[in-house]
Write a structure and sequence with these properties.
Chain lengths: 117, 107
């Protein structure tokens, strides 16, 4: 079955960097676009970024452009999110998600990022 | 950006009730609309895609309708396990956007 497992969350000071990973299994990872979606505590869902099946196309929400970088390694079935210049507004649970036609059919369990001094 | 507006933001209902949640897009999105259920501390779960297609394994008490800008999620007979927060989502264009959520609580 499809499984997505995020890791790398933790507590980080404002202005610092953090890298997240998402390990995929149970499907042909290299055939699917994959997204990062975040949810601030007690808040709604916010799409963050997407990378195409081959890594050739990437889109970001405006608030993270120039600070976050999405990447993938199809040989390792892994998705990454490098987050730089973090602010308190980036505090959230980060999910990776994928599905047919770039939908969010499948989600990981999420990893919590807390930006605090 | 396409704004997604859900209503109501919360509702109280009894077991066995029929529940409707609406979602309006700020511009036409054809049928590129999905619905998710989220329980506390858990990841969202996909219920409906393409406005009215039931995700595999989702019970038929869930149904979706609509096209263009106006969409509805219906739960035909509310059960205890259905008390959760529901989100709509447009995947017509980037940036992808979500509704603010509808919390379904027990009356």
């Amino acid at each position: 079955q499809v499984q997505l497992v995020e890791s790398g969350g933790g507590v980080v000071q404002p202005g610092r960097s953090l890298g997240l990973s998402c390990a995929a299994s149970g499907f042909s990872f290299n055939n699917y676009a994959v997204h990062w979606v975040r949810q601030s505590p007690g808040k709604g869902l916010e799409w963050v970024a997407v990378i195409s099946y081959d890594g050739g196309t990437k889109y970001y929400t405006d608030s993270v452009k120039g600070r976050f970088t999405i990447s993938r390694d199809n040989s390792k079935n892994t998705l990454s999110l490098q987050m730089n210049s973090l602010t308190t507004e980036d505090t959230a649970v980060y999910y990776c998600a994928t599905g047919d036609s770039a939908r969010f059919d499948y989600w990981g369990q999420g990893t919590l990022v807390t930006v605090s001094s | 950006d396409i704004q997604m507006t859900q209503s109501p933001s919360s509702l109280s209902a009894s077991v066995g009730d029929r529940v409707n949640i609406t979602c309006r897009a700020s511009q036409g999105i054809s049928n590129y609309l999905a619905w998710f259920q989220q329980k506390p501390g858990k990841a969202p779960k996909s219920l409906i895609y393409a406005a009215s297609s039931l995700q595999s394994g989702v019970p038929s008490k869930f149904s979706g309708s609509g096209s263009g800008t106006d969409f509805t999620l219906t739960i035909s007979s509310l059960q205890p396990e259905d008390f959760a927060t529901y989100f709509c989502h447009q995947y017509y264009s980037y940036p992808r956007t979500f509704g603010q959520g509808t919390k379904v609580e027990i009356k």
